[in-house]
């Protein structure tokens, strides 16, 4: 598998992006991914061991695998690394211990997982009233509940309500919480809005949305990876970097992988034959990222391959 991945060095994965200021970041992103692949070839035994230990012992970094690459079962995508924004990169969870909102939000989550969406929505609307009346940071509480509500509508397939609530969350993130469009919670919601455009048949807007997320996260990736590499004539990085830094290191990389995978699935579904090759090139990069974080024989690697293969078969 490693040899197969290494043969895909420096693909033209972002060839259709604007060739101006983005070109430098596109090339560096491809270079970074290829370097991860090289690192994999010299530390594959570590990744095999890490994957086994995480699976069998629940190691201290096992939460990385559970929180970075989710299996999403929402309205339209069966994509392996699409997560609810509040669960992975979203709004910081409010402290709910000994809080009257605690049970209601738990009940809403359980109802959503059981696909009892109307029940979950009713509970969350009640929770919004309680959140707005909180004495301790009501703005964060309301934003958190709105994010829950938006995700519930999204999984239900209620496009209009999901769109409305996600946009309200984005507005609050900017106006009340000081977030920027390059912050992970903003990117996570933007990916879902892009998917909603696709569901509504607005494919040009969906394409713009996905590309925006990829471009923003590439800029983040450049700054992020420089923190973990030392320039000694060539980039080097410490051994067992994932074990040493956990989610601090893997979260931005996983989010970049999420952007690429979702866009690849979008191109597969709506880009036609002329963009199939482009979708495959994106998936090559997703495989490298999955291998880097989880190892080549991990569940997530299999899941990525299975989902794209199944989507390709269904498309044909």
UniProtKB/TrEMBL annotation:
Location within or outside the cell: Mitochondrion
GO cellular component, one term: mitochondrial inner membrane
Domain of life, source organism: Eukaryota
Keyword terms, alphabetized: Membrane, Mitochondrion, Repeat, TPR repeat, Transit peptide, Transmembrane, Transmembrane helix
Main location: mitochondrion
BP GO annotations: mitochondrial respiratory chain complex III assembly
Transmembrane domains' residue ranges: 69-91
Family statement drawn from the similarity comment of this UniProt entry: Belongs to the TTC19 family.
Protein name: Uncharacterized protein
Lineage of origin: Eukaryota, Metazoa, Ecdysozoa, Nematoda, Chromadorea
């Amino acid at each position: 598998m490693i040899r197969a991945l290494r043969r895909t060095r420096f693909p033209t994965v972002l060839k259709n992006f604007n060739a101006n200021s983005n070109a430098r970041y596109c090339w560096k992103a491809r270079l970074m991914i290829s370097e991860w692949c090289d690192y994999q070839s010299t530390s594959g035994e570590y990744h095999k061991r890490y994957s086994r230990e995480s699976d069998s012992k629940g190691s201290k970094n096992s939460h990385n695998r559970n929180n970075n690459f989710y299996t999403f079962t929402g309205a339209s995508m069966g994509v392996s690394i699409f997560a609810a924004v509040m669960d992975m990169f979203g709004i910081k969870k409010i402290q709910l211990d000994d809080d009257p909102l605690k049970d209601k939000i738990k009940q809403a989550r359980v109802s959503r997982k059981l696909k009892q969406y109307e029940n979950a929505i009713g509970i969350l609307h009640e929770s919004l009233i309680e959140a707005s009346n909180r004495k301790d940071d009501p703005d964060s509480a309301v934003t958190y509940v709105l994010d829950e509500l938006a995700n519930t509508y999204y999984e239900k397939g209620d496009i209009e309500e999901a769109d409305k609530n996600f946009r309200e969350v984005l507005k609050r993130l900017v106006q009340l919480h000081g977030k920027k469009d390059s912050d992970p919670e903003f990117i996570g919601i933007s990916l879902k809005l892009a998917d909603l455009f696709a569901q509504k048949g607005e494919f040009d807007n969906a394409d713009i949305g996905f590309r925006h997320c990829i471009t923003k996260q590439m800029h983040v990736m450049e700054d992020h990876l420089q923190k973990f590499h030392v320039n000694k004539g060539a980039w080097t990085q410490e051994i067992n970097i994932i074990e040493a830094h956990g989610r601090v290191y893997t979260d931005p990389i996983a989010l970049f992988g999420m952007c690429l995978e979702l866009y690849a699935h979008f191109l597969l579904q709506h880009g036609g034959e002329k963009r199939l090759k482009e979708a495959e090139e994106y998936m090559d990069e997703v495989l490298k990222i999955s291998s880097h974080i989880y190892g080549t024989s991990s569940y997530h690697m299999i899941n990525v391959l299975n989902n794209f293969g199944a989507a390709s078969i269904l498309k044909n």
